[in-house]
Amino acid sequence: MKADKQNALRALFSFAGEAKGRMTLSVLLALVALSAALCMCLRAWLTGASSMRSHGISFTILKNIRFALADKMARVPMGVMLETPSGTFKTLLVDNVGRLEDIIAHMVPEFPSNLSAPLLSIALVFAMDWRMGLACFVTVPVSLVFMVGMMHGYGEKMATYLRSGNEMNAALVEYVGGIQVVKAFGQGRRSFGHFADSVRFFHDSMLAWWKQCWFWMAGFKAVLPSTLLGTLPLGTYLYMTGSLELPIFLACVILSIGFMPGLMKFGFGLEQLTYMAANLKPIQDFLATPEQHRPQQPARLGERAFRFEGVGFSYDGETQVLRDMSFTAAPGQVTAIVGPSGSGKSTVAKLMAGFWDATEGTVSFGGVDIRDMPFDQLMGEVSYVAQDNFLFDLSIRENIRLGKPDADDREVERAARAANCHEFIAALPKGYDTLAGDAGDLLSGGERQRITIARAMLKPASAIILDEATAYADPESEAQIQEAISRLVREKTLIVVAHRLSTIRNANQILVIDGGRLIGRGKHPDLLEGCPLYRKLWEQHISAADSADETEAM
Fold first, then answer.
1. Is the CB of residue 387 less than 8 Å from the CB of residue 468?
2. What is the overall mean pLDDT for the chain?
3. Which of 183, 206, 356, 395 has the fewest beta carbons closer than 10 A?
4. What number is the average pLDDT over the span 5-17?
């Protein structure tokens, strides 16, 4: 049967005559068409595979950059973290890193194709006719003029534009975080100076950048691909004079039109390198921040006392904040630190917590210089409660449990009772399961402070530092916090940086600081007699308390 079909087909083509060769050509063209279709499918698959892999690489790089930034945050002085606006870190981790995605995912893998295809086309044009090859580049000198005009001051203006965007993002985070204060004092967005100024700066810098380059960029994009300005007149002349065949003329014209867009993509890819460098700079600057170097092996600690010996400190290496500070804070005692605003009280507390390293002298804990013990070990021994206490948008139970993650509910409740906050927690709609809100904004200042003290009491720390932890407390909360503080001192080293002197009147030791120097030390009665500054601070405190009582009575 198969042989009969072959014989029939052979018999049919025996009548082809002069058209016999054309059928062979037809079959070959069909095969070429099939190969082209397969190549198109292969191209689409390879492009997709390349895009998937480049995006995967891009996301891996961005992940590693963010991890590197997060790791760096854990190694730099804690003071850097506390004193840098949160919006700055948001911009660094989200915006600066995010802007690198397209550059990695598209620019890098497309660089070879954007360059190789035009180069092959140019080589082919020159191979067919070198005169037409030269004519393809007649627009290059003019376009280079536009390029030079566009790049004049381009890097500086782009850097300013990116910096202005980062500053606006940081100001926006601050504005949103303080919107309650802005509204409470009737301040609109225009009168909130920092935010308004940052928006204007972003607007002006962006406008300056585009004014600088839009005309030149438009000219460059219009002139460079207009290869017909050279190839069409020259090719027509050469064809009319008989020195260029029509097929070659047409091929050169078509190829010259096609390769310029690829070269333009390559050129704009080079521009992206400038954009990438501008976004990488703040990342690299932060990664270059000096770190606190700590040993890996835990230190052997003695009596859990803080000792300052000739300590001096400067934030910027120039202005001295503390000078020749020497004292000891012993276990089982309350050491209070008082002084005028800006005297250096909180700086002393932050040095104890290891947030900064002393620039002169020694800060030791347990008989060991804190620079000679791992930071994790110090944090395990010290519980620090700041003035701006922070609660996560978790249940109150979980916020307290942060002091000891493996604590059971009974331990959490016991700490809450010790901090005098069990009663108000129990009265909440969901008790300990009530959410604290964003940064604890569903609770009053005094309630937040008592919860953070409960967290500190739950933590199995041998030293507790309260850095103006009663600053926002009302009189009732202050009394309860003071009672809680008396419980904290049992077998612990307790440091209290105080603004309200009534909370530290019964402290075992009161340190009076002024201008970064220790000018008085002793108990409350002794300092009232022997320290003029302390006596002045106490009189001001009593006067302020009396005025508050009179106002409340009215």
1. yes
2. 77
3. 183
4. 65
Strands 493-497 and 368-369: unpaired
Read off φ and ψ for residue 531, nearest 5 degrees. Answer: -125, 100
Neighbours of 394 (CB within 10 A): 16
Reported pTM: 0.63
Say which residues have a Cβ less than 8 Å from residue 66's Cβ, sequence separation at least 6.
Answer: 93, 97
Structure tokens, 350? 């932050």
Q: Are strands 382-385 and 463-467 parallel, antiparallel or unpaired?
A: parallel
Highest mean pLDDT (candidates 84-88, 197-201, 248-252, 311-315): 311-315
Rounded CA separation 50/48 (Å): 5
Residue with tokens 């910027």: 316
Cα gap 325→321, rounded to integer Å: 11
C-alpha span between 453 and 463 (Å, rounded): 13
Tell me the average pLDDT across 108-129. Answer: 75
What's the rounded Cα separation, in Å, for the pair 277 and 62? 15
The reported pLDDT for the residue numbered 550 is 46
Can you read off the two tokens belonging to residue 236?
């027509």
- Cα–Cα distance measured from residue 239 to residue 233, given in angstroms and rounded to the nearest whole number: 10
